Task: inverse folding
């Protein structure tokens, strides 16, 4: 039996024999590409080389690449969709094209020396063409010559058989996709490859990058034509093992066995199959994202991570898991992938810690949030924008969880209205904060001004004790205390807090002068000033300098000398969100 480990080895061996060099498995987080949150395909790290830059390993490449597609998260729970998966890929950078790529794919799939898949169960699709790009008759002809009957070759639209650029522009082109007939009954007379019923399982995709999409939407023929192929490890293993879904393979077996132990059952009830699948997919994806150093947040990669973790927690509750279980499953993932991804083990402590923290954050409000959802659903028979926003703000429900709950309950959720409410709230919050607190000050009383100056000392002391990557996330200063928020991903030890406190008091005891100068923003940054919320500043900025200890852009006001401050004392340190800490302090 061919398992995932053997499949990966065979694939690399086949293409090495055919002149390809093995390249490394790139990071799940794209480098130097803000247009994408995750590496979603094997070609993603290769874009510069697809555009013509010479690759150090040559023009024929092959690898195994870890990928994550957020577009597939909503489909997780069916037989074959996954958010995280491994992709086998081979590339031609201006070398061979369709004439070699298609026959190689067919040979690897069907020859007994390799995968030995039954030729009779293979179907293919090619690009039907449109007003911008012609029909791909060349690929269809090659398939016919290889023995695929005409009735098993389907011309499909751009939606199905076109691979767009990673961003809005770049290399792209038609593709030909290879499907395996699972043997299921067709869902109707129009059932064909590309149908979502599960009869046809896509196992390989050959992309022919013949064009470069420009900003104005035109498709210009590439000087260097490329081939980019992708074969999903999990899907192909399921086909090779005669399974009708990826979760019945050895890839997910250890996770499902662990879940059964946690549930204290011998077999998973059919009604809980989808929840089991969602948990397995989400914890695998979350483990790999956390290993990249990403933490759960409400933006970008952190939002996707939070959505995955909280989705897993909800489905855990649905199958009776009312204690923290994510860390136990994550350790299974780490062990399973240790040979190919040893860095997972190195990051295990961080991964487990973050999963436990996020579990505790969400589980505390999950039950109350579900109760609120049920009450709203019973009363209104729908979830409007304000309801969805309430569930998000008060109970930590990502909109995707609310939408899924709505689907399960058969009621509508106003997703578009939610996003409008969220944007409105963000704008109001920002305006309110700007109006109420100038430089974070509630007023300009003497005590408030003293605490404001102490905040500058605190900011720099934190950077010296915890690291120069510390920066201010917000502040609020009254006559009684200062509150300072900053980025940091763990609880600060008592020893570190004492160091910070002592460092601030040392500067106070030095009786350092506090000076203000006016300059341009560029000059201030050149001086080494910390520029928090740069967008607030105009052409001329105020810089407050406390001797050689602190330089910050700030609109004031401040004391003239640190000896005016008294003794600085930290009274509380806490986390307020993932990756953000808060310190409260007073002057005695």
Result:
């Amino acid at each position: 039996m061919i398992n995932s480990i053997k499949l990966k080895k065979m694939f690399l061996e086949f293409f090495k024999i055919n002149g390809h060099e093995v390249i490394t498995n790139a990071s799940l987080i794209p480098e130097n590409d803000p247009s994408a949150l995750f590496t979603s395909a094997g070609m993603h790290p290769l874009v510069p080389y697809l555009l013509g830059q010479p690759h150090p390993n040559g023009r024929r490449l092959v690898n195994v690449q870890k990928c994550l597609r957020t577009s597939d998260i909503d489909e997780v729970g069916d037989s074959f969709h996954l958010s995280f998966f491994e992709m086998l890929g081979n590339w031609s950078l201006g070398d061979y094209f369709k004439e070699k790529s298609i026959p190689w794919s067919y040979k690897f799939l069907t020859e007994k020396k390799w995968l030995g898949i039954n030729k009779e169960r293979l179907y293919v699709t090619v690009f039907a063409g449109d007003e911008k790009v012609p029909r791909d008759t060349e690929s269809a002809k090659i398939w016919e010559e290889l023995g695929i009957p005409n009735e098993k070759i389907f011309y499909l639209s751009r939606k199905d058989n076109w691979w767009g650029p990673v961003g809005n522009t770049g290399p792209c082109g038609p593709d030909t996709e290879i499907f395996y007939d699972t043997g299921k009954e067709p869902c109707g007379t129009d059932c064909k490859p590309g149908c979502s019923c599960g009869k046809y399982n896509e196992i390989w995709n050959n992309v022919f990058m013949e064009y470069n999409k420009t900003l104005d939407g035109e498709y210009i023929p590439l000087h260097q034509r490329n081939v980019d192929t992708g074969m999903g490890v999990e899907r192909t293993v399921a086909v090779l093992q005669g399974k009708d879904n990826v979760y019945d393979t050895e890839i997910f077996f250890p996770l499902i066995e662990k879940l059964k132990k946690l549930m204290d059952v011998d077999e998973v009830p059919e009604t809980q199959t989808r929840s089991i699948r969602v948990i397995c997919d989400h914890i695998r994806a979350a483990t790999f994202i956390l290993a990249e150093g990403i933490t759960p947040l409400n933006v970008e990669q952190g939002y996707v991570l939070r959505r995955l973790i909280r989705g897993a927690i909800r489905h855990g509750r649905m199958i009776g898991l009312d204690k923290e279980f994510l860390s136990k499953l994550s350790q299974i993932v780490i062990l399973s992938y240790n040979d190919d991804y040893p860095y997972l083990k190195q990051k295990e402590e961080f991964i487990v810690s973050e999963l436990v923290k996020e579990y505790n954050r969400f589980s505390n409000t999950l039950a109350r949030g579900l109760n609120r959802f049920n009450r709203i659903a019973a009363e209104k028979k729908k979830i409007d924008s304000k309801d969805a926003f309430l569930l998000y703000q008060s109970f930590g429900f990502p909109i995707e969880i609310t939408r899924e709950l709505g689907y399960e309950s058969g009621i509508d959720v106003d997703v578009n209205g939610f996003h409008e409410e969220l944007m409105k709230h963000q704008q109001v919050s920002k305006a309110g904060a700007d109006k109420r607190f100038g430089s974070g000050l509630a007023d300009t009383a003497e005590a408030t001004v003293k605490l404001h100056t102490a905040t500058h000392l605190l900011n720099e002391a934190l950077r010296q004790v915890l690291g120069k990557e510390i920066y201010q996330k917000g502040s609020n200063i009254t006559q009684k205390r200062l509150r300072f928020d900053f980025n940091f991903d763990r609880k600060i030890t008592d020893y570190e807090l004492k160091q910070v406190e002592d460092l601030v008091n040392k500067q106070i005891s030095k009786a350092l002068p506090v000076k203000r100068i006016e300059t341009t923003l560029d000059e201030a940054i050149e001086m080494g000033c910390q520029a928090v919320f740069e967008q607030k500043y105009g052409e001329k900025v105020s810089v407050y300098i406390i001797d050689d200890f602190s330089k910050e852009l700030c609109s004031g006001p401040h004391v003239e000398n640190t000896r005016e401050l008294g003794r600085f004392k930290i009274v509380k340190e806490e986390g307020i969100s993932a990756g953000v800490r808060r310190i409260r302090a007073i002057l005695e």
